[in-house]
Amino acid sequence: MITxxxxxxxxxxxxxxxxxxxIAVIAFGFFLERFNLFLRTIAAAAVxxxxxxxxxxxxxxxSYEGLLLIFGGVALVVLATARFVRTTRLLDDMQPHAxxxxxxxxxLSACLVLVVASYSLYLAxx
Length: 126
Hints:
By secondary structure, the chain is mainly alpha-helical. The chain has one domain. It has helices at residues 5-45, 49-58, 62-92, 103-125.
């Protein structure tokens, strides 16, 4: 029987939630990368005003935002793994420890909120 099983299970559920979020960010970045490639291909085939509109829709940062989200999602999974291993070691240690620091979770959550907000503003006004 695993000692403090409920704590280990909660730690694993939190880890899996962060991994799921990281995979979703990676998938969204991959989608954006492929969609921008599609827009550039269509813009190259179009003529006149349509080509200009499609090229503008692709944007100046169109080729980088998908890659940024892909690498951000990978970093999210790596940080979640490091946090999971650290928390597992703390749970297995029999000595008492100070209260857990939530800076990592707050920082990751704030980064995700900033990415979503900035991309929403880019789509609305760009």
